[in-house]
Specification:
The structure is a single chain. This protein is α+β, with helices and mostly antiparallel strands and about 450 residues long. It has 17 helices and 12 strands.
Length: about 450
């Protein structure tokens, strides 16, 4: 007897075949398969002949949908001298297209009651719109238009370059936290592209030409480098037909081979000391950490929760509440495709120094390296971990973002639930193992920040 799942998959294959009949090669649809998304939802995976990936998860619980376009391009795909192009495009993509004057894209979505935004990071760029279900056709047409027919002329490029340059001044050059984070990554990565900032170096931003932008657009904003994620109250046949019509004639691009240099193993601690316009000392540490898909990523993230996760965490209790050395502490294990950093940050209380912060922080690190944590501690952070994951899936937009992120970074749109299962399997022995593997002084970079003399005097 044929199972219900197989029958449904056969139905999707028949749907794809029917939609492909009489279509040009680029608009033909293939049903790649079905993926479970948690216990109650599924993701249907389709691909157009031009390489465009489409992930659909029907959820009729509310008359809305979330439409995401994920491009597999971020700052890691740039070259020295051209850093910041991926981020600049996040701005350029909201400008004029061949069929839409400047400002029309946003206006049409706003008139439809939609909200839209975008984000760029090291491994990816994505654009999203949350719209009423009646506006599906509109958002499909708008997104296809800017994927294929963006207008790039000197005035538009120059204007957006100035916007980005001002953003960099505000978020990095004139911001202590931003400048320290940038310096930490520049210190920790000597070969890999993660060493330069997503926003780009200022000289590169100012030096971009319209030809640079056009070449980047032709290379990376292609259907075979993109994934559409649609979650919400949609009918698959209607959605796919609209996508075929809007995107089917878009030609695939010749994607270049990634030329990212692996980061060599770090064999000694790197220490950088700077002065900034801050009233107290600050400390930023980056241990060489696992890639997001590494088996150690989940246990190290749980260990970070034990150390830094809220007011009851070990580091907060030791440095903020008991010793009163710090006013703020935080830690985060980067979620990158390649090996990243386990970041730790601390802000000294007035009258205390970064040396005191580092000494106290090292004591807490030595504790988790020397002995296993309590079972009760692990159980608590597992509950926090699961709650955070589930809260991120409460809306159609949250689900679409998780699907797009995990598919783009790991190739698995249901990876959030695989991560949850991995969390449930973690033991105290795993935490001890990852502490001893990753928390080694020789594999860390340290940025020490002292106030400028004028700040101290004031």
């Amino acid at each position: 007897m044929t199972s219900p799942t197989k029958r449904r998959e056969g139905g999707r294959a028949a749907l794809a075949a029917a939609l492909s009949e009489g279509q040009a090669p680029g608009a033909r649809v293939e049903h790649v398969g079905r993926v479970a998304f948690g216990p109650a939802m599924t993701i249907e995976h389709y691909r157009l002949g031009n390489g465009l990936t489409v992930l659909v998860s029907v959820d009729a619980s509310a008359p809305v949908l979330s439409y995401h376009t994920w491009f597999a391009v971020g700052s890691r795909h740039e070259k020295p001298g051209k850093t910041g192009l991926a981020h600049l495009f996040e701005h350029l993509m909201f400008n004029e297209t061949e069929n839409l004057p400047a400002g029309t894209f946003d206006r049409k979505l706003e008139e439809a009651g939609a909200e839209s935004n975008a984000a760029t990071w090291l491994d990816w760029t994505f654009y999203h719109a949350n719209v009423p279900r009646e506006s599906l056709g509109l958002v499909v047409r708008l997104e296809a238009e800017r994927m294929a027919r963006l207008v790039l002329r000197d005035p538009q490029v120059s204007s957006e370059k100035e916007v980005v340059a001002n953003e960099r001044r505000y978020r990095v050059d004139d911001d202590v936290e931003g400048a320290v984070s940038e310096l930490l990554y520049k210190t920790a990565f000597t070969e890999h592209a993660y060493g330069w900032p997503t926003i780009g170096w200022m000289a590169d931003i100012e030096g971009f030409t319209t030809d640079d932008c056009a070449a980047f657009y032709r290379t990376y904003y292609a259907p075979n480098n993109a994934t559409l994620v649609v979650v919400g109250d949609v009918k698959e046949r209607d959605l796919l037909a609209k996508i075929q019509k809007a995107y089917g004639a878009v030609q695939p691009g010749a994607l270049p081979v990634e030329d990212v240099h692996p980061e060599p193993p770090q064999t000694s601690e790197r220490l950088v000391t700077v002065t900034k316009t801050t009233v107290t000392d600050k400390l930023a540490i980056g241990y060489q950490g696992p890639a997001f898909g590494d088996v150690d990523h989940v246990p190290l993230s749980l260990l970070s929760e034990i150390l830094f996760g809220g007011r009851s965490s070990r580091v907060h209790r030791a440095l903020v509440q008991e010793a009163e050395l710090a006013t703020e502490v935080r830690g985060w294990v980067s979620t990158y495709r390649d090996a990243g950093l386990y970041e730790m940050h601390a802000v000294a209380r007035p009258g205390h120094t970064s040396a005191e912060l580092l000494e106290a922080l090292d004591r807490e690190i030595e504790r988790v390296v020397a002995a296993p944590v309590d079972e009760a501690e692990l159980a608590k952070v597992k509950a926090r971990f699961e709650l955070a994951l589930v809260q991120g899936l409460e809306t159609a937009s949250g689900k679409a973002e998780q699907m797009g992120f995990f598919f783009t970074v790991l190739g698995d749109p249901s990876g959030a639930f695989a991560r949850l299962e991995a969390c449930r399997r973690v033991t105290v022995s795993d935490l001890l193992r990852v502490a001893r593997r990753w928390l080694r002084p020789r594999s860390r970079s340290v940025v020490v920040v002292h106030p400028e003399p004028a700040q101290v005097a004031s």
